[in-house]
Amino acid sequence: MDTIKDILSKTALSKEEIIRLLSLKNKEDNDLLIKKAYSIKLNSIGNKVFLRGLIELSNICKKNCFYCGIRSGNTNINRYSLSDDEVLQLVNFAQEKHLKEIVLQSGEVNNDDFVLRITKLITKIKKITSPDFRITLSLGEQSFETYKKWFDLGAQRYLLRIETSSEDLYKKIHPDNKIHNYNIRLQCLENIRKAGYQTGTGVMIGLPFQTIENLADDLLFMKKIDIDMVGMGPYLEHKDTPLYKYKDTLLQLNERFNLSLRMIAVLRIMMPYINIASTTALQSIVPMGREQGLKAGANVLMPNLTPGKYRGSYLLYENKPCIDEDSDECIDCLENRVKMAGEKIEYDIWGDSKHFIKRTKNE
Ligand code: SAH
Ligand code: SF4
What we know:
alpha/beta, TIM Barrel, eight-stranded parallel beta sheet, three-stranded parallel beta sheet, 15 helices, binds S-adenosyl-L-homocysteine
């Protein structure tokens, strides 16, 4: 049988090899994996970190995903939506801080009013930003026409996590109805790419019922659809959700954390040039968790710009960090933390996925 060193010297990994890497328990082998992934990142991208300012636009959501704290069935939260002026102020703040990109994220709504509102908002943001300022959207499932319209107006990237590439598991963590349909979500990912976006997806790690084989398939799925960007992190339970009752069946938090780092590391080995985010959920488990994500091969951080007063209402999961901070503190503390990890924040740069640049050159 190949040693871990042998596997790590290969350029293409089989499913069995991925499963072996994800299952590593021994610290020495684990360290070898993380080091290998980091060296690949240094070669392909450098010790650079790109920042995206995250704006949690609204927690109003028509969906009822079984894992998420802002699901429509949760009556225990105040629903909010930022005004356009509030968003524009945050965009200005981002520019003052030399960020070249914001991510607009919200619960899923796709009625005409919402689509029109976002259409106008993108136009307003474009008016106050330089042409190279990037807008990433993470607004859930929309029609192809809507994706295309927003792209043509100047949004360049779209994040839509598949959540899990296993249709079976998808069904277990969502209600069984038309608005929670695995094949529609897949189709949306395809449409996002077809509309021209740098396309991002991701999964939750450590979900109830999830196996290591599922996670290996998730990584192979990302490779197969030739994704440009990935944001994946540990699943964290929320007491006002149906999946909470399975909390005692989950991996321990530190195991979920380490498994998430291994997922990042293996993906970096499989896809050296994509952008991989080190997610806030990692920081919820370990205070310096996002920095560890960078050392495992991630290269993107998304400091939260959402005004402090709304943060407590955008709890996708419990123990979300920095919910009582304002954005200034978030960006400043990030700068120090990244430095401590031996990495360097690239300001004034939009940091497109190198993978996307290569792929579109070849098309
Ligand atoms: N409504 C949009 C975007 C907001 S949700 C959408 O669903 O695409 C953004 C992401 O939060 C989801 O894709 C999901 O992966 C993550 N999320 C939700 N609940 C979570 C939980 N309990 N633990 C970890 N991540 C969670
Ligand atoms: Fe809504 Fe997204 Fe949460 Fe699902 S994951 S309930 S779509 S915000």
